[in-house]
Amino acid sequence: MYKRPNVALLKKNVFSLCCCLLFPLCISLYAQELNCRIVVDAAQVAQSNKQVFETLEKALNEFVNKTKWTNREYAQQERVNCSMYITITGYESDRFGANIQVQSSRPVYNTAYESPVFNFRDTDFDFQYMEFQPLYFNPNSFESNLVSVVTYYVYVILGLDADSFAPEGGSEFYAQARNIVNLAQSGNFSGWKQTDGNKSRWGLIDNLLSNPFKSYRTALYEYHRMGLDRMTDDPAAAKESMARSFKYLERVNSTRPNSFLLQVFFDAKKDEIINVFSDGPKVDVVSLKNSLNKVAPVYASSWNNITF
After folding, report:
1. What is the per-residue pLDDT across 19-66, written as a single tens digit (0 to 9) for each?
2. Residue 66: enclosing H or E segment and its boundaries?
3. Is residue 261 predicted with pLDDT exceeding 60?
């Protein structure tokens, strides 16, 4: 079973150790899994009364950050950092048109750095919501597109985070996300069905759980746990592991060229890759660029900036 490593060590955070010396205070150190900032932006909507959007934002923040999503105990400093930026594009009565930008990151061992893991914009996000309506997730039925979409991304975030710490560590979270997809297909909302395309919520979770993309998940572990997390101890070996992760992505590309998952990976990682490989111990830059140009040719001009 996957167990997220003690992120207190990853963040060099001694707060929990100090507090646990005062035993009665330890009880309050455990929290839910996510530290998620949710913003609802209604600037595009011509609406004089903005209260409903403010209420929605507050309700979503409480829902995501106070719900217990797994059966594990997370210390306060171990929570997964993420954000959801919801842009309202239309509003009438209780019906909302919107898109949602979802981002997450994970700490890098022995540093204060947070590595971006997920950065995705979902444009198929229409929902119904009445002000002060309770937000509740029922894992056995589809009741609200708002709750289902947000909860789906909660489990995708948890799954990607787990995959970055342990080989295929996110499987149980992806299974939860797929269950949400299956239930949501009974609703009259887009993004949940195979016919909605490979870049839909259906497409994302189908890729993450399908055999042709196992190498993608191996790459997540190789890049983060064997790469970034070893950067302060053995930067040369760490960079070799990160470069090796792109070979796993080449395997994915050989069977699923220009796949959606590869786009998701490099949308989050492009700038980080350039920064890492433009300094420190040298690697075979020619081989590195060949790999990157195979799996992410859209960023070819960016890879040319790796000159170290």
Report:
1. 333 333 333 445 689 999 999 999 999 876 789 999 999 999 999 999
2. helix 51-66
3. yes
Predicted confidence at residue 293, as pLDDT, reads 95
CA distance 207 to 202: 9
**At 119, which helix (H) or strand (E)?**
strand 114-122
- Residue 252 scores a pLDDT above 50: yes
pLDDT at 97 > cutoff 60? yes
User: How far is 241 from 276, CA to CA, in rounded Å?
Assistant: 12
Where in the chain are the domains?
A: 1-192, 210-308
Full DSSP string of 18-29: HHHTSHHHHGGG
CA distance 185 to 204: 15
What pLDDT was estimated at residue 25?
Answer: 39
Q: Return contacts of 228-235, CB within 8 angstroms, 24+ apart.
A: 228/108, 228/109, 228/115, 228/276, 229/10, 229/108, 229/109, 230/109, 231/108, 231/109, 231/111, 231/276, 232/109, 232/110, 232/111, 233/110, 235/280, 235/281
Q: Please say whether the beta carbons of 97 and 119 come within 8 A.
A: no
